[in-house]
TrEMBL record:
Keywords: Cell membrane, Membrane, Protein transport, Translocation, Transmembrane, Transmembrane helix, Transport. HAMAP family: SecE. This is Protein translocase subunit SecE. It is found in: Cell membrane; Membrane. Residues 1-23 are annotated as: Disordered. PANTHER family: PROTEIN TRANSLOCASE SUBUNIT SECE. The gene is secE. It comes from the Bacteria. It comes from Gluconobacter frateurii NRIC 0228. It is a single-pass membrane protein. Essential subunit of the Sec protein translocation channel SecYEG. Clamps together the 2 halves of SecY. May contact the channel plug during translocation. The keyword Transmembrane helix applies.
Amino acid sequence: MSVTTPKDESRKTAPHKNGSGFNLGTYLKDVRNEAKRVTWPTRRNTLITTGAVLAMVTVTCIFFFIVDQVIGLGVRELFGVGG
């Protein structure tokens, strides 16, 4: 099985300027143009997502704290070590 591309679609490559090197002005202009294309989240979406992340981190911390306490209790009971 082979994969072929349609004949009307040729590979597009960025134009190369021979010996031009790095141009900071062009780079910054390109960065600005790309930033304009970004779909930025609204303030509300950002706050909701941040709240969800903080809630999940809190739940995860509580879960691992409980698991750690249970394992520590088991080790103390089984071996009589660890305080």
